Every structure is written in C-alpha cells, then in structure tokens.
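Recall the central idea of this unit: under ordinary conditions, the amino acid sequence of a chain determines the structure it adopts. In this exercise we apply that idea directly, starting from the sequence alone.
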Amino acid sequence: MTEVIVQELRIYPLKSARGICLAHARLEHTGLQWDRHWLAIRTDGRFLTQRTQPALARIATSLGERGLCLRTEGLAALELPFEGPAVEREVRIWRDTLVAQDLGDAAAEWISTALGEPARLVRAPRTPARRADTTFAGPRPVPLAFPDGYPVLVCNQASLDALNERLAAPLPMERFRPNVVLRGLEPFAEDHIECVQIGRVRLQLVKPCTRCIIPSIDPRTGLRGEDPLPVLRTFRFDPALRGVIFGENAIIVTGVGQRIECGARCEVTEENTESR
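Accordingly, the structure predicted from this sequence is:
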C-alpha cells in the first residue's frame, strides 16, 4: 500500500448547506468541531435537507470569531452565535426526537425567505443527548449533533476516481459531503478498513454510507445534475443495507481535543473479513 494521507477536511456547519474546506480541524466528541451544529427545520420541528429543500445548497457558510455566518443571494448575511440564550425546541431527525436551541424569529425569517417556505433555525446544545445507532456504533455512547447518523464520514479519493471513470461527467468529492478524504488507498479499500489512525486520533469505520439523491444536486446552484446512483447501483449495492453505498461512517475511538491536519499521514488497520 502506498502512503495514505488526509487529502481534505470538510465541515458543514448548517446541515445540508455548503461546506467549508479546512487546513486543520479540531476533533470534538460529536465529530469535527462545528460540523452540523446548526439545522433548518419546518415549523413542526421536522428537519430539512437538500432532499426536499435543494435551496439549502445555495447557502454559503463561514465561521467567524463569534459564530456562524450564512449568506445567500438576495439577502443580507446572517450571523448565528456559537453560544447564548435560546429557547429549547423539540426537533426530529429521521426517527430521533431531540431537544435543540431555537435561534429566534429574526433567524427564522431569514431562513424562511432563503428557502421559500416557513422554517426555523436551531443549534445543537453543548452536550447533545442524541446518540448513534448502537447496532453499528457499539454499546459505548456516541454523541451526535445533527448528522444523519454518525459523527464522521470518511471517503476515499481513489473510489471517486473509479466512479468518475464510469460516469458521463465527473463529479467533485463535495457532492458526497465527506468530513475526511483519504488519498493513497486502492479504490474502495475503505470497505475493508477497520480503523484509521491520524496521529493521536483514531477513527473506527463502522458502517458503509448509504446514498440518497443529494450527490445529484449541484452544490452551487441547488439544481439536479448528473446522478451517480444508477451507476453506483450496478456495482455498489449492499443487499444487507438495502441501498447504494459510497464512503464509510466512522466513530471516534481516541483523540477528542486533538487537531487533524490536511496532509497528515495515516495508518490504516484492515478489518477481520468476517466482522461485517
């Protein structure tokens, strides 16, 4: 195996909005710092993503000293503080019901205008009560902010290259919304990796990531484009998960509080082939 390195680090502070490429990232209990810590919801508390609201793709995000800044065409920028008083509100992500912090009517008006439907913005509490599915994550509690199901998503650049060879038009990695992108692996080697060691950080790959329509949405325009799912289905369908897979969901074994750097060397541990 050639040398494996961290090629990219990405966070998505507002779930389903545009991400941020980082040179380095601090690891928290819930994943990379500030990743998916803000969420757009319907007024009934149900979470919103690009699956039903592709206009989220047109919202750019940036981190400042005091909080998260949101920008989209036609609206003044909105700053959301990292901390501060907020009213608790019950929200729902898939089958999980949890308590989040409502960021007020001004933020609700901004996101409603941006999305063209009544909506509100919430922030994850400092200590989220939500947990990853123990079926894959194991019995140790794995806290979550607002990702779909796991704190870190790891993707392999060689796997994307192999997929792009089969597509009519190549797709950028940002379509798959990873947190950590590795370079130096064989295509789809991630299927057989148990752990990735990055300095003092150890990530355990626990479940292949099943894919929806989001990779078909242009992250700059919010419009549907090349859909990789039909091609992926021909060689990346997992009968056990009943879905098309690309990338691996990971949990944090060690390294909370440590910093991951782009370009850092990684050590990978292959799993026992009978383990999953």
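The radius of gyration is 18 Å.
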